Every structure is written in structure tokens, then in C-alpha cells.
TrEMBL record:
Domain HTH crp-type residues, every copy: 155-229
Taxonomy of the source species: Bacteria, Bacillati, Bacillota, Clostridia, Eubacteriales
Record-annotated Cyclic nucleotide-binding domain positions: 21-141
UniProtKB keywords: DNA-binding, Transcription, Transcription regulation
PANTHER family, per database record: CRP FAMILY TRANSCRIPTIONAL REGULATORY PROTEIN (PTHR24567), LISTERIOLYSIN REGULATORY PROTEIN (PTHR24567:SF28)
SUPFAM superfamilies: cAMP-binding domain-like (SSF51206), Winged helix' DNA-binding domain (SSF46785)
InterPro entries on file: cNMP-bd_dom, cNMP-bd_dom_sf, Env_Response_Regulators, HTH_CRP, RmlC-like_jellyroll, WH-like_DNA-bd_sf, WH_DNA-bd_sf
Name of protein: Crp/Fnr family transcriptional regulator
Amino acid sequence: MEEKVTCDRCTDKLCASKVPIFSNLSREELVEIIAMTGHRSYHKGESVFLEGTNAATLYLINVGKIKLYKYTKEGKEQILHILADGDFFGELNLLKEGTYGFYAEAMAETRVCTLTKDKLRNLILKRPEIGLKILEVVSERLLKLENLAQNLATNDVETRIAQLILDLSKENGRNIDRGIEIKLSLTREDMSNYIGVARETISRKLKKFQDEGIIEVIGNKKIILLDEERLKGHLSL
């Protein structure tokens, strides 16, 4: 499942300074952390770990994209988070004995650096501010999960899709003359698994928003958000 590789490009710039929890460390401290890390590589679609396996590693994404997900009672995939360069995962059960509560899978060719539970504990004891930064990120992710659960439980399909587009615009959007250009890292299937609707419904609602002049869909990889305020208006429908 896991392929250990040498990582010649896994320098302090790529492995450690990309990660916000290490952002205030000196170069010497970053080099010290790099010496603690292992390196692994995953192909698109390859599993990093399964739900229920022993939690013993913190993963730092060097290059690539990882999705964290669970399965619903109906057996449908529910995406929890999609993480990219500089993000980390696998942190929740590292300070005590436990197992991973979700699946992790590479969505693209991905290289990660790893810290074992014992090394992470020693690092936090030496630099408590790193532990505090980890808690900040965990708090943000828990809030995002709460919002996701509320969105799935209380909002209709159109509202869910509108919220997803707005979230993607904040994460991946850039301002252009016509509006906000969003480069999609999600396939239609991923979008479906994120907000709990059928893939065909995603395509139909995106076309509706396009016909209304709110967005422009360019192939499967790009959306231009033409009228952000009108899209926000769909959140209260």
C-alpha cells in the first residue's frame, strides 16, 4: 500500500517550510525536522491508509492532492476534506493510542513527508508552539465539518452547490476582469461525493447557474464566477 522512496527534492523548502505549523522555524530547525522525516510516494487512486488502521504517522503533503473520506450507511463515499501542497493530515490520534477515523487516498501523483508519533511528540515538547498551531488547524477543520454536516442536513441541492462554488472560489479562485476564475481540482464525481447529490444533478444545476448568467462553465476544469452576489442569493432560497 505504501511505497517508500528517496526524495531528492524533499528539501526544507518543499517539505517543511510549506507547512504552516513550521512557518516560524529557522532554517536550522527546519533542517533538523527534515532529518526526522520519512518520505513516501503515491500514485493517483492509491490508498494512503484505511479507516480503522493504527494511527502512527503525521503526513505532510510535499506535492500532490489527498482526499479524506468516509462511507455513509448507504455505502456512498462522503468526502470530508481535500488537501494539497503544504497541508498535513493524520494528526487527530497521534497524541494518544487510536486509529484513523477516515480513509485517505491520493487524487494525483503525490509525495509526502512523514513524522512518526514519537517524533512528533518530542518535537511538540521541544517547540510547544507547533502543538498550538496543530490545534488551530484541527479546530478549523472541525468547524468546516460542522458546516458540512449542517449543509447536508438542512440545505436543498441548489444551496449546496452554490455553497460549494463559493467555497472553491475562496480556496482556488483568482480575480480576472470578468469575475473570479476557479480552477477545479474536483471532478464532477468528487463534487457529488462532497455535497451528497447525484453527479447528473451537479451537471444540471451548473447549467442552470450558467443559463442565469451567474457562472460560466469551461470544460470540466474551470468555472468563472460572473456574479458572486447572485450566487450568494441562492444560499437563502
